[in-house]
Amino acid sequence: MDIDVYVTAHRAEWERLDHLLRQGGRLTGAEADELVALYQRTATHLSIIRSSAPDPQLTARLTQLVARARATVTGTRRASWHDAARFLTSGFPAAVYRSRHWWIPTAVLSTLLAVLIGWWTAAHPEVQASIGAPADLREMTRPGGTYETYYSSHPAASFAAQVWTNNAQAAALCLVLGAFLGIPVLAILFLNMLNVGVAIGLMSSAGRLDVFLGLILPHGLLELTAVFVAAGTGLRLGWTLVDPGPTTRRTALASQGRAALGMAVGLALVLFVSGLIEGFVTPSGLPTWARVTIGVAAELAFLLYVYVLGGRAARAGDTGDLATPDRSAEQPTAA
């Protein structure tokens, strides 16, 4: 193909398309139709030039022209405060509500596992000996020891930020790694429950379980719930690879994956609240009943948020996925 002849033949169309694009939103109906037609023809021209007579400068020019035309024809959508409000009042709680059949069993089984590990650790001195030397264990569990001073070892603000970052990363890993059939999620969850169970066992063997629960419950209720939600959602994502349902595996995984990424943002906000409680309430001078009451109130508020707002949104058809106009077109599947 003679590139010069081709350019001469179609230059007028490209210049006309560029002119229409510069008009912005001031196009008449006929001009809008003309813009769509020119966009389609120019896209064809670009494809022909790329395959038959690639010219770097011409290809770059037409690529930019086609991109501008595509943005004008298909429209661009910017996130707004309305989208954020919709996400917080509908999308996120609906996604958590819809995955409840995964994260509630995950929470129950994980809690039982932590209790079992705690009992095993407390009831078997040889297990405690395998964890650390007797002097080290006494240092951790004594009044004013490591377990107690951990929450006040750093300034409240920096400690809350550090805790939030660590927990948000753990939750995000559960959500993302769920795509690997959920196996990494089980490992992350087991390590978390192992740490909690060992701490319960050691403090219980020292006769100070009440002190430990008074320290962990204010923030731990909400924090662990967020972790359980993330783990349950990750496991659900992994199961989608095994059983995608009535849609194709690719479509089901994409839908669940988008919802999971949205949940990562929402759970980061939940863990931010938990981090504030852990940084400012847990090490505070408030009596134990007051600190625990704050933790229980935060947990109940989250559950009400999920079951009231989320349940209502889920029954209305919200899945936590992107709105239909923001999703890629999907090929229909047979019923």
Question: What's a quick, concise take on this entry?
Answer:
The chain is an all-alpha fold and 335 residues long. It has helices at residues 3-22, 29-52, 56-74, 81-98, 100-123, 125-131, 134-141, 146-149, 156-177, 183-205, 209-242, 249-281, 288-315.
If you had to describe this structure to a student in words, what would you say it looks like?
The protein has 335 residues and is mostly helical. The chain has 13 helices and no strands. Helix 9 (156-177) crosses helix 10 and helix 10 (183-205) packs antiparallel against helix 11 (209-242). It is elongated. Mean pLDDT is 84; it is low at 323-335.
Features:
elongated; mainly alpha; 0% strand; 79% helix; disordered C terminus; 335 residues
Mean pLDDT: 84
Low-confidence stretches: 323-335
> Structural class of the secondary elements?
mainly alpha
Helix fraction, binned, reads over 70%
Counted by DSSP, the helix tally is: 13
User: How would you spell out the order of helices and strands?
Assistant: HHHHHHHHHHHHH
Rg (CA only):
28 Å
In percent, how much strand structure appears in the residues?
under 5%
Spatial separation of the terminal alpha carbons: 48 Å
Q: Based on DSSP secondary structure assignment, what is the total number of beta strands?
A: 0
The major β-sheet equals: none
Name the overall outline: elongated
